[in-house]
Amino acid sequence: MQTLIIEYSFTIEGKTAPLPVEKQTGNMLNSDNRFINREISWLSFNERVLQEAADKTNPLVQRMRFLGIFSNNRDEFFRVRVATVRRIGALRGKQKLLGGETPQLLLKKIQSIVVNQQSKFEQIYEELINDLKKHNIYVVDETQLTKEQGEFVERFYHEKVRPVLVPIMLQHTNEFPYLRDKPIYFAVKLSKKNDPQQTKYALLDLAPEILPRFVELPGVGKSKCIIILDDIVRYCLNDIFSFFNYDYSEAYTIKITRDAELDIDDDISKSFMEKMSLSLEKRKQGQPVRFVYDANMPVDLLEYFKQRMKFGKDDNVIAGGRYHNFKDFINFPNIGPSYLENKIKSPVPAMHLYYHQSILKEIKKRDHMLHYPYQSFRYFIDMLREAAIDPKVSEIQITLYRVAKKSMVINSLINAARNGKKVVVVIELQARFDEKANIQWSNRMQEVGIKVIHGVSGLKVHSKLLLISRQEKQSTERYAYIGTGNFQEDTSGIYCDEGLFTYDKRITSDVAKVFEFFDKNYKQHIFNHIILSPFSTRKHFIDHIDKEIRNAKAGENAFMIIKMNSMVDEEMMDKLYEASQAGVKIQLIIRGICSIKPGVPGLSDNIEAISIVDKFLEHSRIFYFYDGGKESIYISSADWMVRNLDRRIEVTCPVYDPEIKRELIQMLQIQLKDNVKARILDEIQDNKYVVNNHKSVRAQDAFYYYLKKRKKRIDNKIE
Question: For position 261, what pLDDT does the model report?
Fold first, then answer.
């Protein structure tokens, strides 16, 4: 797949795409199957993560961590998406979803794909365990311990594990215990050699949120050993139930996944904060959407649990491996050589920003773009810290969606408030899975006098905005930051995002209007430069696409590149189909869900799409339009999904600075040339790697070195 933006060429697997034939399209745009179902597409994305775990060119420990990412993704998929499909099926019956499937058929397809992926997962895990042995690293279970290791495990168990274990004898409970959806549970069978009638069943919560999942054991010679918490408990299982005098004790891992949707009540006497807190409590008791068990579990034990938990034939009851909650493997330790995990490259210094100098003064001179994680989030923190103590700064306004557990961003805001600044924080309480943390942060900030706005009624605030107001020469000057990612210093090191620092009054005046809207929702504002969901984003991009269509029909160059996380919105995808049929060349870089079908004759001949899954998570949204040679480019917090376009406050910002525009276009060019970690997205969804005879390009590495070379040229005053 060769794609060179400079010449605006468009090829598919080395062959020039034919112009669309109008008569071939017929009723294609009205067809139920013109899109890929979003859930199926998401599973295809997670398959790409699994491919990274299988890829032998990746460092060994990193591959194990990819298994953790895959598992974490799948858990969230069941908690959110499968739960939603089930809910739709209950409410709408056999009404067809995006892609043409009924909810019932879709759930069967999902289960089939999940079972297939689980089989691959277990094969990869076994392969990784064997590969670790080649480096003298052994993941051992309870049957493989030396005497010394056994003694170590017993000490660890009695000191750390036993105090937090709560065994429950199930025959003595009228109601089956409530199982939360995050812990690891053991289903336990206790039996006697000569009296099967005395068999009893029990339940154990392993409390991995308190205890480490991986424990390093005393080594044997040059060998290093790790044992998983599950097997420590198995080793000491007889101790737990010793006073029952059973001959055999067996423990098998089970896991429950529950519906994570929040149910906000409409009691007007309660504050939104109270409603959110109550809803979070209800989430803990969400309906089960998946039950996973160890495939080696005895039939009688499995049937007992299914019966007591009231699982039916249509429920997602899935046989799994020995270990569950594989998300913990994201933190799988490296106890071997450093080359077993990705080498951490030092961040590239910003092009025109320097530590220990006033960030605000530099922003006043020119716009700056930071590219995370290739460049450090520290510049943003330094700007906040500077604003917090600068006597001329009067006000700081910011939107927060997700923040770090130990947030330097919030600490800087608290410092600013203590220094007498007016601080306004728009914090979204409905940030999925971060709701509890955001409520706590909200209370903490209010305690120090920060004005906290809990979003906008009926709309999630997903924009990434900062506005600093400074008194300079009898006037108020504004400095803004618009980003594609959260103000989250932890994820800034692993998420690929863009952050624009600007003093441009065209942008800052519009950002000021956004914050005024947060404070007074009833006021209407006209935004002349930035684009705001749910008010203008959809129309703005449709207008851009229509312009490319007109240019293509007039025989002029018409071209666009769209980079985002997810593309699901039907209207926008239909508009891209229309553009393709008019002759507009369209290149998509979609990390996750992609419901559009590229390269379908008569429908999308002029659309090609790739997905890059690599060591960093591609998270930025960038939109490029040839625009008759003007080359319009935008960064955004919004994907093309109904929720981002119509139900959230999202900001899309034009990039005016010519130098930054070139930088972003170069990034897109590099990504489109990736033939190492890029996969072809098509109707088949088989995630084939881009293969060609061109020089190998690994986009994430290539862009890092591009930034390094460019910085060196700037410092040497070559540019």
Answer: 57
